[in-house]
Specification:
heterodimer; A: alpha+beta; Cytochrome Bc1 Complex, Chain D, domain 2; two-stranded antiparallel ribbon; 5 helices; 4 strands; B: mainly alpha; 5 domains; three-stranded mixed sheet; 9 strands; disordered C terminus
Chain lengths: ~160, ~700
């Protein structure tokens, strides 16, 4: 056997051995809407579509059933009831008002109603109609469509992240 | 071979041997390295590093093992190793979107992920341990992961009745039924629509041959300059249910010849009395009076008309019946009069109620329709059609069967072909290799196939008989989802046991009520015990809710004070007898056992209680946010001006205790009233009367909200 053949054989063996080490080409970037459970057009810019996760989509469903009558400018049944109310309820996507409220506060005001938290009694309590999970999902939907966008509060620092 | 040469050879051999040994060792060393570098092991290590960067490391790594994790459910054919990489799916603290995949928690769904596995819903290859093999289709493993956008299809594979959590799936199934897809295809669980395509046995008496030609060529009669029309300003595009067939000129001539000759069961002509015609025909207000009557009768609850404002064309009105913008150029005027008097004689399965007409109203409305709802250009694109020949008639009859017209439209004496289109009952579980993609340049997977086929049937099969539908993106995705849910009979008996059957809604009207109920087609808009439409409030317990006298007055003159409603209860011109038959049946039969009239007596209420109720209504609970009394208040709930004449006190009390127990979908908040508060509010509401006869200010509940969510 010639040394040259040995080199060829060596190359062959090595290449066969390492072939399996190649990572498969990256999965093509998924379309965010195809990866979303549902979507909602941005209320301030209908051309922009906000993809929604499962939880946000369930929130959207509850919103359009229960909340849309007073917290939106148009409802599936026509004009909104918002203009009839004083104080005027915030639009659900009103980030300037709602981004500052914690999830816990939002959960409380939906569950207990406005009067329980010193706000307008026109906001009824939903604690007996919606489950805690449904209320969480409405809050998640609020956060998803907020304009200006909602920034979640910082996570408490971990002992490892300081490195 | 001499010995010294042997030695030479040996040293060379030794060198070769040494080199190859080194190579062999190297190759051997690669294999543990390769094993260490396996894709799933990298994700395992990445998860540990990720967990260490989180504050709750201990909990996140509590059930960590460096090996392959697997959910094994033999009865359901599940061997899912997805949790090998998706290690955080049950960790609540990993729920938010900032957590990188594959570690994010599964969103909270009604099923426990560990009890069901992953591929039951998400598809893909459970046993695979490489990203590409698990998620995409490979030569050996074909089922790719279902895009989340269509994931509701998986709910529908077991839950055969509609779930509130899956609106896209429900919409898709509704469209499949509405478009009568099961007329040609086998689609289990999709019902035949109440209104199929109209029976064409006497179509020749209704429309002209030219109109049929135009309709077959372009079923949509109203379009704006861009070819679009919006419906009530919302994004749903109301397409005619009739799709577009690809017909040649000769086929059009043949079909129109055959159809326009269908006059098997003509309606008897009705002559409007000469006195009425004489007194109105010269009146310049005839058409405008007809329009007024058309509006007063709320024809627009079922029929829409195109309205152009500021360059934007919208259809205003309901979609239960056809849009009528140009109907005056469509139908034969004599047919129209006979039809309006008695629709059922022409179409036994129609949803159009039989109104009570006076000759005067009939004359005014038909004159309005035939003179105002017209378009002189409607048929201008139709070529001159020569008198039909026998050959054309034969061709038309053959085409009517071959093109599938007979699957939706009946013609007396003609039997449609059985199993006309392909069986779609297992389409949703098919692999790409089982599908015919033809020359279409689309990704070879099931979702792309279904969407291409729906959008342009000939793109994947040039010989397709399926007609052309015009979908918007949302409807296309909804129908795709519904088709993906059709996975055929479950593969194992354990899966069969998981199937949640459809609830069959049944309501049988009986006695003299049945005749009136059929005449006015109450079920088209109202639900009775789960059966019927969802345009208007459910009437299952209407007898417990409304007072009999109010019902009679309402039925004879439906009035509403919900100013936001477009779609309202039509004015049927109902006779006293019909109204009291309905009211009697409703108050006797449509009762809720929990609402006991004996427990509440209106006489027990004192003015003091009513005064307390008024306080509660206006100050503590601020009911005026949603309800109107007098001229102020909101309009989410019904107007309460006439509550004392409309509602029964027993109903108000039961309603305030728990509204959802009586009407599950209502948006009335379920509050925590004390008994005293309930008594007070009931006493107050019972003092509200709008006068002896309900005029425009009469409160009512029986009007249609566009969304059922607006039910009181």
């Amino acid at each position: 056997m010639k040394p040259r053949m040995c080199i060829v054989a060596l190359f062959f063996l090595v290449s066969v051995g390492t072939a399996g080490c190649h990572k498969n080409a990256d999965v093509a970037k998924a379309d965010p809407l195809l990866a979303a459970y549902d979507s909602e057009p941005d209320w301030t810019d209908p051309q922009k579509i906000v993809p929604l996760s499962y939880q946000e989509a369930q929130g959207k469903r509850v919103f359009y059933q229960q909340c849309v009558w007073c917290h939106a400018d148009a409802t599936p049944a026509g004009p909104s009831n918002r203009s009839n109310l004083t104080p005027v309820p915030p639009l659900l996507n009103d980030g300037a008002t709602l981004n500052g409220e914690t999830d816990e506060y939002m959960q409380n005001i939906i569950t207990l109603g406005g009067s329980a938290l010193g706000k307008s009694a026109m906001m009824p309590p939903y604690g007996r109609m919606l489950t805690a999970e449904e209320i969480r999902s409405v809050i998640a939907f609020t956060r998803a469509i907020a304009q200006p966008p909602y920034q979640p509060p910082g996570r408490p620092g971990s002992q490892y992240s300081a490195k | 071979m001499p010995a010294e040469e042997m030695g030479k050879l040996t040293s060379r051999m030794r060198l070769i041997f040494a080199v190859s040994s080194v190579i062999f060792l190297l190759v051997l060393a690669i294999s543990p390295f390769k094993d260490y570098r396996r894709e799933w092991k990298q994700y395992k290590r990445a998860y540990v590093r990720f967990a260490q960067s989180r504050p709750d490391t201990k909990r996140l790594t509590a059930d960590y093992s460096p090996n392959i994790d697997q959910i094994w459910l033999p009865g359901m054919n599940v061997t899912d190793r997805c949790t090998t990489c998706h290690q955080g799916i049950t960790q609540l603290s990993l729920a938010d979107a900032s957590v990188p995949q594959p570690f994010r928690a599964h969103p909270p769904i009604p099923h426990n992920v560990r009890d069901w596995g992953c591929t039951v819903c998400h598809r893909g290859q459970g046993p695979a341990t490489e990203v590409a093999e698990a998620h995409e289709s490979t030569l050996a493993w074909e089922q790719p992961v279902l895009p989340t956008h269509f994931i509701q299809a998986s709910c529908g594979s077991c839950h055969l009745s509609d779930l509130p959590q899956t609106p896209q799936l429900s919409r898709g199934k509704q469209l499949l039924a509405r478009l009568n897809c099961q007329g040609c295809h086998k689609l289990p669980g999709i019902e035949t629509p109440v209104m199929r395509g109209p029976d064409l046995s006497s179509i020749g008496t209704k429309v002209s041959r030219e109109w049929i030609y135009k309709w077959l060529k372009e079923p949509r009669t109203v379009t704006d300059k861009d070819g679009n029309v919006t419906v009530n300003g919302y994004e749903t595009v109301d397409e005619p249910r009739m799709p577009k067939f690809r017909l040649t000129e000769a086929e059009l001539v043949g079909l129109t010849a055959y159809l326009s000759a269908q006059k098997a069961m003509p309606l008897p002509a009705y002559k409007i009395s000469a006195a009425v015609v004489a007194s109105w025909s010269k009146n310049p207000e005839l058409a405008s009076q007809g329009e007024l009557r058309f509006r007063q009768m709320f024809c627009s609850t079922c029929h829409s008309l195109a309205v152009t404002r500021a360059g934007e064309t919208k259809l205003i009105g309901g979609d239960i019946g056809p849009e009528l913008t140009k109907v005056g150029s469509k139908v034969n005027p004599d047919w129209l009069i006979a039809w309006l008097r008695d629709p059922e004689s022409y179409l036994p399965h129609t949803r159009m109620p039989r109104y009570g007409w006076s000759d005067e109203d009939l004359y005014k409305v038909t004159q309005y329709i035939t003179t105002k709802l017209v378009d002189s250009d409607l048929l201008s694109s139709v070529p001159k059609l020569d008198p039909p020949t026998d050959e054309q008639m034969q061709l038309g009859k053959r085409l009517f069967l071959e093109k599938g017209c007979a699957s939706c439209h009946a013609i007396a004496g003609l039997n449609p072909q059985k199993d006309f289109g392909p069986d779609l009952s297992a389409l949703g579980g098919k692999n790409a290799s089982e599908l015919e993609f033809g020359a279409a340049k689309i990704p070879h997977n099931l979702v792309s196939y279904i969407q291409a086929k729906l959008q342009d049937p000939v793109s994947v099969n040039p010989a397709a008989r399926m007609p052309q539908y015009n979908w918007n993106q949302a409807d296309l995705d909804a129908v795709t989802t519904a088709l993906l849910s059709m996975k055929g009979p479950p593969a194992t008996s354990a899966l069969q046991n998981l199937v949640v059957p459809r609830k069959e809604a049944v309501f049988h009207a009986t006695g003299s009520f049945a005749a009136v109920y059929e005449r006015y087609k109450c079920y088209t808009c109202h639900k009775f015990n789960g059966y019927g439409g969802d345009l208007a409030p459910e009437l299952t317990y209407e007898g417990s809710r409304a007072q009999r006298q109010w019902l009679i007055e309402f039925l004879k003159s439906p009035q509403t004070l919900r100013p936001t409603l477009v779609l309202r209860m039509p004015q049927f011109n109902m006779s006293d007898k019909d109204a009291s038959t309905l009211a009697d049946y409703i108050s006797m039969v449509l009762q809720n056992p929990a609402v006991n009239p004996a427990t509440t007596d209106a006489k027990q209420f004192t003015p003091a209680m009513a005064a307390l109720g008024k306080q509660l209504y206006e100050v503590k609970y601020q009911c005026q946010a949603c309800h109107t009394i007098g001229s102020s208040g909101g309009y989410v709930g019904p107007n309460l001006n006439n509550a004392g004449s409309w509602l029964t006190p027993a109903w108000i009390e039961a309603w305030l205790k728990n509204p959802q127990a009586l009407v599950p979908d209502t948006v009335e908040p379920h509050r925590n009233f004390t008994d005293q508060e309930i008594n007070g509010l009931t006493a107050y509401l019972m003092t509200l009367h709008a006068g002896s006869k309900p005029q425009k200010t009469a409160g009512n509940s029986g009007t249609a909200a566009v969304s059922e969510g607006a039910g009181q």
